[in-house]
From TrEMBL, chain A:
Organism: Panthera pardus (Leopard)
Phylogenetic classification of the source organism: Eukaryota, Metazoa, Chordata, Craniata, Vertebrata
KW Zinc (keyword) present: no
One of the GO BP terms on file: electron transport coupled proton transport
Similarity remark: Belongs to the complex I subunit 4 family.
One GO MF term: NADH dehydrogenase activity
Entry EC number(s): 7.1.1.2
Name of the protein in question: NADH-ubiquinone oxidoreductase chain 4
Function recorded in the entry: Core subunit of the mitochondrial membrane respiratory chain NADH dehydrogenase (Complex I) which catalyzes electron transfer from NADH through the respiratory chain, using ubiquinone as an electron acceptor. Essential for the catalytic activity and assembly of complex I.
Automatic annotation (TrEMBL), chain B:
Location (main, coarse): mitochondrion
Keyword set includes Nucleotide-binding: no
Cofactor entry: FAD
Entry's localization field: Mitochondrion inner membrane
Organism taxonomic ancestry: Eukaryota, Metazoa, Chordata, Craniata, Vertebrata
Keyword match Nucleotide-binding: no
GO CC entries: mitochondrial inner membrane
This protein's name: FAD-dependent oxidoreductase domain-containing protein 1
Length: 456, 482
């Protein structure tokens, strides 16, 4: 584990000491190398976890997420180059440092053994994200967005701290490997209900659950591209990962307690998909689609069957890559037209055909086309929830249809039709942007060849 | 929930009531500090926009999809139709930047307010026909909940254009599709309007329907109210700079063109050095008489003359006078808007024997457009004699008042410029109507909105009014210009 953490930490001095024309090249290449190292963790040995030290471990749940996190850093750096080109050198270096710190904290979060350490790092990831959103975001509303983001997550996770300390006191340990065996089954008494709520609310807010999702569209729309990418791809998965870890301690109270959240997720899934159909702001549409996909993950985690867990992990990885790619595409639009409204930049297929190909592939992945892992994830979740209750198939089916609707709506509005007059002179796609899209899509497509790695 | 309880605590709780909200002021609010603190806390809470460094509520937003330069009737009409025609509601963010918030020098409110369909260019006729339909149904178009209906005081008295021998042939040709016009001989003219002296008149065309005059201020306020209710932002400032990025591209025939796009508009706040860069995707130039200056800011016309880069927007300020006089023996209520062959015009104003009128000066006697001072000698020399000759009752009149306003005069062909600029590709024009902008404003607004949203004109084809005619030299000559 140290072989990933120390190089990531060392990326920081490297950024500060690089020559001005080399900062982007250096940081991107070295972070790409680090991600290649982390690929070795995917080689998991069956049911047991790969224990690397007293503090860090990785098992088949956290390894794909770890690889996703490290893979995203070079992509974020590539995506941010253009909008940072006008800043001063030290600001650029500061931005890169923020991204690296965030990366470091995320790596440690995904591989933490001790739940308190997980919690501390979970909270610590908020700080660099907040700095990125409020300092480098686009509009004045970003301060509002940052506040929403910060306080929603903090309010949710404060009870989690109390709960974790309580569990530490009663069970004697919070080391994840040990507590699997030591956890006592808890029944649904009042104090246990509160314990359950305290543990889960933090992750519900992070996922986000439908009723607590207000921070997400704001944060995504106002954040700069790297912020949006890391938010959509990784930070949301922190919630899912945390939920999966903590539900082990909370059986069997989960059977009763899960009902309201299941209802909220199922309903919220359909609701947010429908909201997407009426969105005019491109980034806002992608943000709401994130909420919708994550609601599926919440449903899966709360059902707690092996199939649903497999579906949840596959969906998390797939959604991370797809969502991040869609944000990059939306950003490439925004940099050219300076507006995020979809109807103002139409007919891009005739002007930027290669970008149109990326748009098509990303949209197809988003609507869970076979054989991508998006489909595998969704399918497993749908099947598991059907076995939990037959009626959920109606809502799931509706959601799949509406997802297809809004994704195609987004595709046809931006790509097809006659182009508008005022986008005639936009810059052609840069190689950097094409490389960015390809690097997003390549893992997605390769994983459809061997999905067993991400199926947890 | 948290926010509501906090707000309740701050505004309406007993503590809030005691501090700073009393008429007399309590001891604790001696400096007015408490209300300031309360205002600050309210702006900090989620839901308000708060900049931690300084108060930015008077500045325009940092980004807007469409920036309309100029808040007169044309600018507001474009804003209205953009918001009306956008497919998903609330999609486009529009910002209207107007330098003069009292409209003291705007051409809209200083206009005589006439509307006619007697034009020779068919597009002009169609524009006016749609505009009169808009004005007749103004309360369906511009209705705002809970606000009183508008009364634009439309007097459908028609226009009477008089032509001498020379102009008679042109006038006969000008009777166009859709306009209900009746051509009258001098005999018929004397029968209908006994107060007219038909000496020198060979033919007269009288608009029977859809012509007359209305109150431009009411239209402006109605548009402003409606447009604000639709979510358009207003900013009181002046556009000082356009930041643009350019791309060298090759046309199909291989020659190189430099296409520019404006990505930022610097809006300077009144009486201050502060300016706000507004990031935008589209700029609409509806600055009226000052459109030429705005176009120059965008770099239109900077190039060798004779090329497309060097073609300026030929809209300039021209001062025109309007005089209001009282004549108790003057023509009665059925007086149309009379236009004499000499260029003098007058119309009835109100019900007290008052008349408005003026005359367009020739090229040589153009007044200096530097200020809006009225030249009363102009009335004595150029307006009164033809008037008195045409309407003998006007030999005894008393001038009550006068004002001057600007025409956004298109020196090329005195017709409007609509549509995008070929080189600065995201600047659209809606200006240059040289005195008939007010009457065509609703239709022009719709045309520009269609151009922005769809990419081509859908209802009325104004492709002859595009900017490229200044380069190619195709004039759209209107024979019935006042």
């Amino acid at each position: 584990m140290l072989k990933i953490i120390v190089p990531t930490a060392m990326l920081m001095p490297m950024t500060w000491l690089s020559k001005p024309n080399m900062i982007w090249i250096n940081s991107t290449t070295y972070s790409l190398l680090i991600s290649l190292i982390s690929l070795s963790y995917l080689n998991q040995l069956g049911d047991n976890s790969l224990n690397l030290s007293l503090l860090f471990f990785s098992d088949s749940l956290s390894a794909p997420l770890l690889v996703l996190t490290t893979w995203l850093l070079p992509l974020m750096l590539m995506a941010s180059q253009s909008h940072l080109s006008k800043e001063t050198l030290s600001r650029k270096k500061l931005y890169i440092t923020m991204l690296i710190i965030l990366q470091l904290l995320l790596i440690m979060t995904f591989t933490a053994t001790e739940l308190i350490m997980f919690y501390i790092l979970f909270e610590a990831t908020l700080i660099p994200t907040l700095i990125i959103i409020t300092r480098w975001g686009n509009q004045t509303e970003r301060l509002n967005a940052g506040l929403y983001f910060l306080f929603y997550t903090l309010m949710g996770s404060l009870p989690l701290l109390v709960a974790l300390l309580y569990i530490q006191n009663t069970t004697g340990t919070l080391n994840f490997l040990v507590i699997q065996y030591w956890a006592k089954p808890i029944s649904a008494t009042w104090s246990n209900i509160f314990l359950w709520l305290a543990c889960m609310m933090a992750f519900m807010v992070k996922m986000p659950l439908y009723g607590l999702h207000l921070w997400l569209p704001k944060a995504h729309v106002e954040a700069p591209i790297a912020g949006s990418m890391v938010l959509a791809a990784v930070l949301l998965k922190l919630g899912g990962y945390g939920m999966m870890r903590i539900t082990i301690l909370l059986n069997p109270a989960t059977n009763q307690m899960a009902y309201p959240f299941m209802m909220l997720s199922l309903w919220g899934m359909v609701m947010t998909s429908s909201i997407c159909l009426r969105q005019t702001d491109l980034k806002s549409l992608i943000a709401y689609s994130s909420v919708s996909h994550m609601a599926l993950v919440i449903v899966a985690v709360l059902i707690q069957t092996p199939w649903s867990y497999m579906g949840a992990t596959a969906l998390m990885i797939a959604h991370g890559l797809t969502s991040s790619m869609l944000f990059c595409l939306a950003n490439s639009n925004y940099e050219r037209v300076h507006s995020r409204t979809m109807i103002l930049a139409r007919g891009l297929q005739t002007i930027l055909p290669l970008m149109a190909a990326w748009w098509l592939l990303a949209s197809l992945a988003n609507l869970a086309l076979p054989p991508t892992i998006n489909l595998i994830g969704e399918l497993f979740v749908v099947v598991a929830s059907f076995s939990w209750s037959n009626m959920t198939i109606v809502l799931m089916g509706t959601n799949i249809i509406i997802t297809a609707l809004y994704t195609l709506y987004m595709l046809t509005t931006t790509q097809r039709g006659k182009y508008t007059h005022h986008i005639k002179n936009i810059n052609p796609s840069f190689t950097r942007e094409n490389a960015l899209m390809a690097l997003h899509l390549l893992p997605l497509l390769l994983l459809s060849l061997n999905p067993k790695i991400v199926l947890g | 929930m948290l926010r509501r309880t906090l707000l309740l605590g701050l505004c309406r709780g007993p503590l809030g009531r005691g501090l700073g909200t009393h008429r007399g002021g309590s001891i604790l609010d001696r400096d007015g500090k408490m209300s300031e603190i309360k205002k600050k806390i309210q702006s900090i809470l989620p839901g308000g926009d708060w900049n931690p460094l300084y108060d930015t509520s008077h500045l325009p937003p940092e980004s807007s999809d469409v920036v309309i330069v100029g808040g007169g009737v044309l600018g507001l009409s474009v804003a209205y139709w953009l918001k009306k025609l956008e497919k998903p509601r609330g999609a486009i963010r529009v910002l209207v930047v107007e330098r003069d918030h009292t409209y003291s020098r705007a051409s809209t409110v200083l206009s005589v307010g006439g509307i006619r369909q007697q034009f020779s260019v068919p597009e002009n006729v169609q524009l006016s026909l749609f505009s009169i339909d808009f004005l007749r149904n103004i309360n369906e178009y511009l209705a705002v909940a809970d606000d009183p209906p508008l009364d634009i005081q439309f007097n459908p008295s028609g226009y009477l254009l008089l032509a001498s021998e020379k102009g008679a042939a042109i006038m006969e040709n000008n009777v166009k599709e859709g306009a209900k016009v009746c051509l009258m001989s001098p005999e018929q003219l004397r029968n209908k309007f006994p107060w007219i002296n038909t000496e020198g008149v060979a033919l007269a065309s009288y608009g029977m329907e859809h012509e007359g005059w209305f109150d431009p201020w009411c239209l402006l306020q109605g548009l402003r109210r409606k447009v604000q209710s639709m979510g358009v932002l207003f900013c009181r400032g002046e556009v000082t700079r356009f930041m643009s990025s350019s791309n060298l591209m090759k046309t199909a025939s291989g020659e190189e063109v430099n296409l520019k796009r404006i990505h930022e508009v610097h809006v300077k706040i009144d009486q201050s050095l502060e300016y706000q860069p507004v990031e935008c995707a589209i700029v609409i130039n509806a600055a009226g008489a000052w459109s030429g200056q705005v176009a120059e800011l965008a770099g239109i016309g900077k190039g060798p003359p004779g090329t497309l880069q060097g073609t300026k927007l030929p809209v300039e300020l021209r001062k025109r006078y309007v005089y209001l006089w009282h004549c108790p023996q003057g023509p009665g209520l059925e007086t149309p808007f009379v236009i004499d062959p000499s260029g003098t015009y007058f119309r009835r104003e109100g019900l007290g024997h008052n008349y408005l009128g003026g005359c367009s000066p020739t090229e040589e006697e153009e007044p200096d457009p530097g200020n809006l001072e009225v030249d009363h000698d102009f009335f004595q020399d150029r307006v009164w004699p033809p008037l008195a000759q045409r309407v003998p009752a006007f030999e005894t009149l008393k001038v009550r008042s006068a004002w001057a306003g600007y025409y956004d005069y298109n020196t090329f062909d005195q017709n409007g410029v609509v549509g995008p600029h070929p080189l600065v590709i995201n600047m659209y024009f809606a200006t240059g109507f040289s005195g008939h902008g007010l009457q065509q404003a609703p239709a022009v607004g719709r045309a520009v909105a269609e151009m922005v949203l769809e990419g081509h004109f859908q209802t009325i084809n104004l492709s002859s009014f595009l900017f490229s005619r200044f380069y190619s030299g195709e004039k759209v000559q209107e024979h019935n210009i006042i």
